[in-house]
Amino acid sequence: MLVIALALPFGNFGNVYAQVDEEKSLSVDYSQFNTESTKDAADKFFQMALDSQKEEEKAQNLKNAAAQYYILSNIDMSDSYPCIQLARIYDLQNNDAYAKAYFYRVLGLNYKDADANFYFAQFYYTRKEYKKALEYYQKAFTYGKEEDAQTLKRIGQIYERFSDIPRANYYYKKSLELNPQDSELSVKINENIKQEYEKSGYYKRRLRN
Question: I want to staple 46 with a disulfide (CB 3.0 to 4.6 A). Which of 65, 84, 89, 93 is the partner?
Fold first, then answer.
């Protein structure tokens, strides 16, 4: 029974929702699964997928991680973590509809979930939907990631794309304060300051004189 339960929903992971009735017929008792070991296995497979250089190996590790996170999401349906991870997996698989479904599921329960907002922002950022990305990065910032260097850097990058250099530098500097090792960001700030100076009336007056 246990092996069948694991194999059935993930033989074709894109159809998880469509298989709900079929899964119910198995009467799976998710309380029999160990939460800690299931999470450890899921996280291990997910990290292996991120580290994978071969696409086939990455796909298999994502599939294995998804199976474990799906079980975890049914052990405790109030736990947002496995749903966020499932959304991230669908994101990596370019399955936009299912990624959004899981993000909305988490945010429907708690719209202040900082991690869900952050990864939803990442979802939109990689698809170059920068206005939507900024909306969710700012929510992540507001609801708990005000001192997260990556969130601040992403907000800065979007403002730079919108040609709002002063605001971009504001967030870049806050990010750099939290992560002084980011040498790329330090160079970017200096370049932006130089660019703004060269555009200023003061710089142009000096050239005329």
Answer: 65
pLDDT digits (tens, 9 = 90+) for 45-91: 999 999 999 999 999 999 999 999 999 999 999 999 999 999 999 99
Q: What angle do CA 132, 134, 137 make, to 5 degrees?
A: 110
The amino acid that residue 141 corresponds to is: F
**For residue 101, which amino acid is it?**
A
What sign has the CA pseudo-torsion 93, 97, 103, 105?
A: negative
- Closest of 1, 8, 98, 79 to residue 38, by C-alpha: 79
Structure tokens at 64: 């294995």
CA 60 to chain centre: 20
Contact 166, 191 (CB under 8 A): no
**Angle between helical axes of 130-142 and 149-161 (0-180°, round to 10):** 150
E strands in 78-191 = none
